[in-house]
Amino acid sequence: MLGYYLDLAVRSLKRNKILTALMIMTLALGIGASITTLTVLRLLSGDPLPQKSARLFYPQVDPNTLDGYVAGQTKPDATMAYPDAMNLLHARRAKRQAVMALTQAKIIPQHANEHPYFSDGVMTTADFFGMFDAPFQYGGGWTADDDENRAALVVIADFLNDKLFGGANSVGKVIRINDHDFRIVGVLKHWAPQPRFYTQDLGSRDYGDGDGVFMPLQTARSMDMGPEDTECYASVTDVEHLELAPCEWLGMWVELGDSAAVTDYKSFLDGYVKQQIALGRFKRSDTALLGLMGWLSDQQVVPNDARLQVYLAFGFLLICVVNTVGLLLAKCLRRSREIGVRRALGATRRAIFAQFMVEAGIVGLAGGLIGLLLAELGLLGVRHQPADYASLAHLDIQMFLFTFVVALVASLIAGLLPAWRACVMAPAPQLKAA
Amino acid sequence: MSVHPMIAALRKHKAGVILIAMQIALTLAIVCNAIFIIYTRVDNVRRPSGLDEANLFLVTQQWVGAPSGDDPDSIAKLDALEREDLAALRAMPDVESVTPTNSVPLLNSSWTGSVALKPGSDLRGGTARTAFYFGDENELATLGVRLVAGRNFTAADVVNRAMRDQRQPSLVIVSKALGDKLFPKGDAVGKAVYFNGDTMPTTIVGEVERLQVPSTSSWSSGFFWDTTIAPIRLNANFSRYLIRTKPGRLEAAMRAVTPTLYKTNPMRVLDDDSVKSFADIRSDAYRADIGMAVLMGIVCLILLAVTAAGIVGLTSFWVGQRHRQIGVRRALGARKIDILHYFQLENLLIAGIGALIGIALAIGLNMVLIKNFEMSRMPIVYVLGGLVVVLLLGQAAVFVPARRASNVPPVVATRSV
Q1: Is A317 exposed, middle or buried (0-12, 13-18, 19+ CB in 10 A)?
Q2: Of A188, B66, B69, B344, which one has the fewest beta carbons inside 10 Å?
Q3: What is the ipTM of this complex?
Q4: Where are the transmembrane segments (chain B) (predicted)?
């Protein structure tokens, strides 16, 4: 039976080529636009560490004065001052914990004829790699003792290892960063979480390739490397010794095993702040302990424009579907005589309904196919944008299948009204009119 | 022509009428919001930075093995390196003027702080926020900003200072916007202000007509024109030079600048991003805005085309269906123009209803966008403009099928009855 409907549908679609082409193109445009924008949005709002994100949390405290403070309505600052970060780090109340800041690392090549260049650097502490599941190609991270001893050690990314050592095992070798020698202890495999969640509010690195060098925080600071972003909450006389200044420049992450551990850590954090208030260092008692995904949405890491484009595209798709309903309806009503004949010859209402839905489905699949091409074209356009996420914009298999689901659902919804109108039509008047 | 029979006729095509009205309503809602977005973006891009932007480029470089900048001796060394560079740049044949600077408008690198009229105000609670530019006596000339009151810096005003030195400048030039914000009477020149909660006063010696802050993001929108220029040559492990070339010599100067700097001192980092024309800085700063405006424009055009196609499709079908009625009306004395008007008026009626719903939708959509995307309220003129556009679009789309209807001969009425 389906074969017969298909045949009928194709015949009917062929009868009015312009109208058919119009329907398919309208649907394809709507689908192409929405799949393109949705792919970009999915890329931007994805989970950077799916296996781990549920266990990673971002503690926040608020060392600001009471100016402009409204109890319960003021959010704690995004970053921490050095004393708080270190106190929380050394308390070791979580399974793993690390503090971090971003810096520009100036890499000085061994060969005299090469010019030095910059690489994105991270100043952090020992647990960073284990906590974030950063995979090593050679060697490993450094230890908490190395942190305290300010050892000049460094972990480098695969792309930097390729550039400096041609991809060979470089553990134990020395590289010169910001005029100091660092011994390489580990080389990462390709590691670039999207978005780069741990850089939020520390600098402007949201997407794109991962960082190039990772250094112990205290070592880097003792060699005078500064954080990319500093926010001071009181008048500053000396920013050279950032560790002592009333300035926030560190982000902290903790790994907590289960929800009981989360509750414990939150009360530990509250207790810490109460203690600081008692000591007179703090005035505000607010704390926060957001999970990784909660932190990303709090930071609004997904650009507004990307979300706006999704709104726009789906509005566009809606209009395209309404338009297709109209055109299918016009086509269907024009064929009332044919329907009358079929009904008179014994076709049931269900058969007529099925016939029209098959026709709508064909329009949908054709629209989906062309829409897919348009989406690929759209993503090609996105890849040529200068945004740091541009190169990641690819249609994956899920979105590929999703395109057809959207197309089919859209066309079947569009086909419902015309098909229903066709099947409730009484055959006699149509035949009489003939 | 009476509207009554028309409404009676439309009652028989409820589905079609609703579909066209819906499509018009949605189109109106999206198109006028999209045009509003285009307008805001284009407006952003078109605001003048205050600079004379032609023949301007920026060099950002970092020293290798530079002194730390922590003690007076090493600060003097850093300053010597910087002055050596400045001398070499000024000696280039295509260069007109050079200033060291910490940032320029549209560059994503800001140094902001507060200004107050009283000493020792709280850092975050100053009278106004401002962005700082640090340069020497050539800063104004190189930027190409116009002095409207007071005087320019002289070479004697310029001091060198370590990047981390927190002392405030003793004199500054402010933008007129900032001057007027602090001193609404417009007499800022000669007055003392206090920067960043400091207790040492700073004297305003001049006012420039207009100078934008570096950042173009929304966080800076509250003090977009409130800028301060201080006569300070900053000494750090990096330096930035803004260079104005002789007219038409921009490319030649940009090509020559890297070799010149390496010749002066090879121990520095200069990479692909180090030398940037102001045109590139501008296009980088506004690329997202322009991209969004173009995208919105394309979507609007496609939407209008799709809606027009839908109207043509459904009206053509109605014309085909009503062939006989049209024949009867023609036989009873209706002229061609009457039939044409009938379909046009019918479309106006449907589009009008759709547009009324569309206005409500447009305002609703605008409110959703205000809530979710930090957008501003859409002026009513956009809705009215959109209304005119969709009504005209409806009329244009209905014209071809209506013309076909008016050409139905009266004889159709008598045939095949």
Answers
A1: buried
A2: B344
A3: 0.75
A4: 15-39, 292-319, 348-369, 381-400
